[in-house]
Amino acid sequence: MSDIEIRKVTARIGAQVSGVDISKPLDEGTVAALREALNLHKALVFDDVNLDDEGQQAFVRHFGDTTTAHPTVPSVDGVPNVLPVDSERGRAANHWHTDVTFVLNPPQASTLRSITVPPYGGETLIASSAAAYRDLPEPLRTLADTLWAEHTNDYDYAVPEEALDEEHAAQRAQFTSIKFRTVHPVVRVHPLTGERGLFVGGFAQRLVGLSVGESRKLLDLLQTYVTRPENILRHRWSPNQLVLFDNRITQHYAIDNYDGLPRRLHRVTVAGDVPVGIEGKESYSIQGDASHYTSVAA
């Protein structure tokens, strides 16, 4: 095993990893050490990674099978498992979310690799939903433990349909070209650590058994705990970096604060399991087949 050094970036989330060359095949001991660090810190930052698309995919495969790029959005040309996160293609995800929670088994982990970095701005915020859950006062935690939420990619976005220009309207139509509705526990139990985390974010649109208005108030309240500054890593991108984060117990947000300058990251995600709530009940799908994106283990 290489001489890995792991340095915390904030008290609650994030660590810088050095002493390992992730462009090369990793031995089992190194992978186990990185998995342990990911379980503990939720997000890991690697500098000077010297990776191309194939190298990024090879690194991701140490943690499990890769998904295809996205259920509805095209991949990098000729590379079906790599999603371009590109300012020039209107992909600034400036809302809090956990990746692809509208499918039955969202990715267990995501990697982002810097391709083009603007001279200022363009940070990615990553929040610990485990820390958020621990922050909840007891009565609110007890309530959250009982709630289930419907996640969907087809909802009323902040920008009204009539206000969209032709390009953005086409992007929205593409994003919702297959409509997904899936019900997940609001409090998800991490399958490796047993930690509980708030599994909400932008795709969670309605709580089971409650009206839309009631749901929005409760979801917004829970979300304020996720986005407390103490629970957030604010990552400023440098060239040739890779960030690996646990998609089961984090949310993230791409800040649109770089004046439309070029910004491009490539995303590769690790196939995940079906979320489980505190009573052992699994998530269930209402609408949409994502088998072309990621298979569900039997």
Low-confidence stretches: none
Percent of residues in β-strands: 15-25%
Average predicted local confidence, pLDDT: 92
| Share in helix | 10-25%
Q: How many strands appear in the DSSP assignment?
A: 16
Distance between the termini: 33 Å
Q: Give the strand line-up of the largest sheet.
A: 1-2-3-13-5-15-4
Q: Sheet bearing the most strands, described? A: 7 strands, mixed
Shape: globular
Determine the structural class based on helices, strands and strand pairing: alpha+beta
What is the number of helical segments per DSSP (H or I, 4+ residues)? 6
Write down the secondary-structure element order. Answer: EEHEHEEEHHEHEEEEHEEEEE
**Radius of gyration from the alpha-carbon trace, in angstroms:** 18 Å
Topology:
Elements: E1 5-8, E2 15-18, H1 28-41, E3 43-46, H2 53-60, E4 83-86, E5 109-116, E6 124-128, H3 129-135, H4 138-144, E7 148-152, H5 166-175, E8 181-185, E9 187-189, E10 196-198, E11 204-207, H6 212-226, E12 232-235, E13 242-246, E14 250-254, E15 264-270, E16 284-287
Parallel strand pairs: 2-3
Antiparallel strand pairs: 1-2, 3-13, 4-15, 5-13, 5-15, 6-12, 6-14, 7-8, 7-11, 8-16, 9-10
Helix pairs in contact: 3-6
Describe what you observe in this structure.
The protein has 298 residues and is α+β, with helices and mostly antiparallel strands. It is 20% helix and 25% strand. The chain has 6 helices and 16 strands. It has helices spanning 28-41, 53-60, 129-135, 138-144, 166-175, 212-226; strands at 5-8, 15-18, 43-46, 83-86, 109-116, 124-128, 148-152, 181-185, 187-189, 196-198, 204-207, 232-235, 242-246, 250-254, 264-270, 284-287. The chain has a 7-stranded mixed β-sheet, with helices on one face. Strand 9 and strand 10 form a beta hairpin. Helix 3 packs across helix 6 (212-226). The longest helix has 15 residues, at 212-226. The chain is globular. 40% of the residues are buried.
